[in-house]
Amino acid sequence: MRRLIENSVHAVGLEFLGVVPLGVEEGFSFFERWIASGKHAEMAYLANNMHCRRDPRLLLPGARTAIILGLSYNQGDSFRRQPGDASLPVAQYARLGDYHRYFKAQAQQVVATLQGAVAESHQFRVLVDSAPLLERALAAKTSRGFIGKNTLYIHPEKGSFLLLGEILATLPMPVDSPSSVESGKRSDAGGCGSCRRCQVYCPTGALDEAYTLDARKCLSYYTIEHRGTIPVEYWSWLPYSLFGCDICQLVCPYNRLSEKPGSTAGIKQNSHLVKITKLPPLPEMVLMDQSFYVRTFGGTPMTRAKKAGLQRNALIAMIVENHPELAQVLADSRLNEEPLLLATTAQISEYRALKS
Ligand code: B12
Ligand code: SF4
Ligand code: SF4
Question: With a 6 A CB cut-off, is 213 part of the ligand 2 pocket?
């Protein structure tokens, strides 16, 4: 069965990470404490359906196991940008088209293969990113991979530029023996050891406590999930992190390892998924109308920030760079159509006072 799963996962262009048992999640108390301490910022939805996060079997009656899948998306960005470097200030995952749809469709093909090989009564459910499920805690139960100090699931050979998805199954299957990584040690199985690179290079101190992310300080949170104005102390980084942030992955030695010749990691099989290869000029982004927004960003993860969020991010980048067209944009009447842009404009003096 494992061979069948592995082959059918590879055949559809995904990574097979392992098969894990489902049950009450030991990491749940960590999650509860994280929520209680307010580190989830304004992502109130994370506190919903806590019972499912505690016990993922509630997501599919009779579920016993989960097949853990990965979608590799490393496009070779470098942390240290060179002058003239064409890399975009957009997180690598967000340049893909709608990976949820692609990932789900590929996983459904795997399900179809499995369904053909087992009794009809067995149920499967594909989940990708959207369910109340501790996806990283599940992935960390596979025999290869661990949670790093940057809080990401890292595979020792494939790195962390892997989106996670799961096939929950009522089918009893042989499960992985958990990876032998010891917290604080580094071995062939993985582990951070004494490395602190993600903590040192995170520009905002969001990882000051190892293995714990404080979303109230994270650029990824502000540029993707946060709906209001962005506190001015985070503005300086927006020209480089216009949507999402990859710094704590780009500096991680496991992602350098994943570039080694012969590694299966990287975008390779999924290069056709890359949809965003350039961005419109910032003034156009700030003043875009609905049809421009849909044409340019529709069907990509960047719509998670919604039109107003992308406009806000682009306006901040213009202010920080003192863009030559800033005065013109600020005087444009279209700015008045979006309250978030007006509220961001009202923060300019505060930002300039901070910088002076
Ligand atoms: C909310 C969310 C965010 C928030 C908060 C991130 C965070 N660190 O919690 C924000 C908006 C900041 C965010 C950012 C990003 N996200 Co996000 N996000 C999520 C989401 C929806 C929920 C995560 C969550 O529950 N967080 C709460 C914390 C407490 O839980 P946790 O991180 O899962 O931690 C558990 C395990 O680590 C476990 N655990 C297991 N072993 C160990 C060992 C030790 C020592 C410890 C302490 C804990 C531990 O304990 C915790 C749970 O109990 C998941 C999808 C999902 N449903 O899981 C995607 C997800 C985590 N995000 C993902 C991605 C790609 C990103 C970004 C890279 C996007 C970007 N480039 O900007 C960044 C990475 C930032 C970072 N360093 O985490 C991927 C990560 C894939 C991977 N390889 O790990 C996920 C899994 C989506 C997916 N399906 O692929 N994200
Ligand atoms: S995503 Fe960026 S801001 Fe957030 S923890 Fe990682 S390096 Fe820090
Ligand atoms: S950068 Fe270092 S400390 Fe951070 S996750 Fe990678 S190995 Fe662990």
Answer: yes
